[in-house]
């Protein structure tokens, strides 16, 4: 597909009374039409902040984009006047969030909220917008859409509300859809259904899809590529198969080891010990070193290890990527 989005050397800071936190420190990636990129990491890794920077919902205290470019179809969103950027947010690049209940307005019927997109951006009258809303509700598989178009958000289950959020997000046929932990609040069966629906709509419309998640298990079946973030940087990126079969970064390996696997029942899960660093006080050297079982002296000092190519379309920011690759292949 053609390139939709290019993020280049993105830098984001949070300025608080306690100091400055580098939330994003030199992030790079591309997104093409029809491609699904999963951005993976624990909370505080910078994955949601990356999404907010792309959406342009960040530049107010405490969060600021302090460097880099975010190009959409070749144009830098960060240099665009607000008015022009607002025309991209929603119609071109759209986003869904984890918490559908707080994103929906409790006092308006869901059909009205979906239809609002069509009334504002497409200039539709109420009747057409209502019909459009029903079609969108049907597309996201809400049973009895026509009967439920005037129901309120609280009258739907969590999974159905997330479907309503998807309907709103795709109403204007965006080229890029960003989903930030879209299924985290839902139970496992519903999670899988929502992921399958996103994938289906993405393929049908050839959207570029960015899935932001802390759960490598959730994106296995839907992602084409995975970028793993830690402490504001991408530490590994590869196609989905390579990420699962041949991780080169110890952090990715740790995330993989903490996914429950059906074929290894009874085997104990190894969660990564410790916590991600406070971004106001990131450890020197490799930020992951306090939690890394591969760490040696070189990891604890100097600049963070750079992202280096370790295979086709596969980059890893670890001094010992080769060793980690060999370790994974041996087990
Ligand atoms: Fe671990 Fe060192 Fe690699 Fe960082 S650079 S992930 S501390 S081995
Ligand atoms: Mg988040």
* Major sheet description: 8 strands, mixed
Give a list of the ligands.
Answer: iron/sulfur cluster, magnesium ion
Low-confidence stretches: none
Shape: globular
Enumerate how many helices there are, as a single number.
Answer: 12
Strand content: 15-25%
**N-to-C SSE series?**
EEEHEEHEHHHHHEHEHEEHHEEH
Structural class call reads alpha/beta
Assembly context of the chains: single chain
Tell me how many strands there are.
12
Rg for CA atoms = 21 Å
Averaged pLDDT: 92
Question: Whole-Å distance between the termini?
Answer: 36 Å
Helix content: 25-40%
The strand line-up of the biggest sheet is 6-7-8-3-9-10-12-11
Textual characterization of the structure:
The chain is α/β, with parallel strands linked by helices. Helix content is 33%, strand content 24%. It has helices at residues 47-55, 82-88, 100-103, 110-122, 126-139, 145-148, 158-170, 188-205, 216-219, 240-245, 250-257, 321-330; strands spanning 3-16, 19-32, 36-40, 63-72, 75-76, 93-96, 176-180, 208-213, 225-230, 233-239, 308-311, 314-316. The strands form 2 sheets. It has an 8-stranded mixed beta sheet, with helices on both faces. The chain has a 4-stranded antiparallel beta sheet with strand order 2-1-4-5, covered by helices on one side. Strand 4 and strand 5 form a beta hairpin. Helix 4 (110-122) packs parallel to helix 7 (158-170). The radius of gyration is 21 Å and the shape is globular. The two termini are 36 Å apart. The relative contact order is 0.14. Bound molecules: iron/sulfur cluster and magnesium ion. The site of iron/sulfur cluster has 13 residues, from loops.
């Amino acid at each position: 597909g053609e390139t939709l989005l290019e993020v280049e050397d993105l830098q984001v800071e949070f300025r608080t009374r306690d100091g400055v936190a580098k939330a994003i420190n030199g992030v790079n990636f591309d997104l093409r039409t029809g491609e699904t990129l999963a951005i993976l990491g624990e909370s505080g890794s910078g994955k949601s902040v990356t999404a907010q920077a792309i959406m342009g919902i960040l530049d107010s205290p405490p969060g600021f984009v302090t460097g880099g470019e975010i190009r959409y179809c070749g144009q830098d969103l960060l240099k665009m006047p607000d008015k022009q950027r607002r025309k991209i947010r929603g119609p071109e690049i759209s986003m869904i969030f984890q918490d559908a209940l707080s994103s929906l307005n409790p006092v308006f019927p869901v059909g009205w909220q979906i239809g609002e997109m069509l009334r504002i951006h497409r200039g539709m009258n109420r009747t057409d917008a209502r019909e459009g809303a029903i079609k969108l509700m049907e597309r996201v598989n809400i049973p009895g859409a026509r009967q439920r178009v005037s129901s309120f958000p609280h009258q739907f289950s969590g999974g159905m509300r997330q479907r309503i959020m998807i309907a709103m997000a795709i109403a204007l046929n965006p080229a890029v859809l960003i989903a930030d932990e879209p299924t985290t609040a839902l139970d496992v069966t519903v999670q899988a259904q929502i992921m399958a629906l996103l994938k289906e709509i993405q393929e049908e419309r050839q959207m570029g899809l960015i899935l932001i998640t802390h759960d490598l298990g959730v994106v296995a079946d839907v992602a084409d590529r995975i970028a793993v973030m830690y402490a504001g940087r991408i530490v590994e990126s590869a196609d989905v198969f390579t990420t699962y079969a041949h991780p080169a970064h110890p952090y990715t390996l740790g995330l993989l080891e903490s996914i429950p696997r059906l074929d290894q029942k009874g085997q104990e899960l190894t969660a990564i010990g410790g916590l991600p660093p406070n971004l106001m006080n990131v450890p020197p050297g490799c930020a992951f070193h306090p939690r890394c079982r591969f760490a040696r002296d070189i990891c604890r000092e100097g600049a963070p290890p750079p992202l280096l190519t370790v295979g086709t379309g596969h980059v890893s920011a670890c001094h010992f990527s080769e060793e980690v690759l060999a370790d994974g292949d041996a087990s």
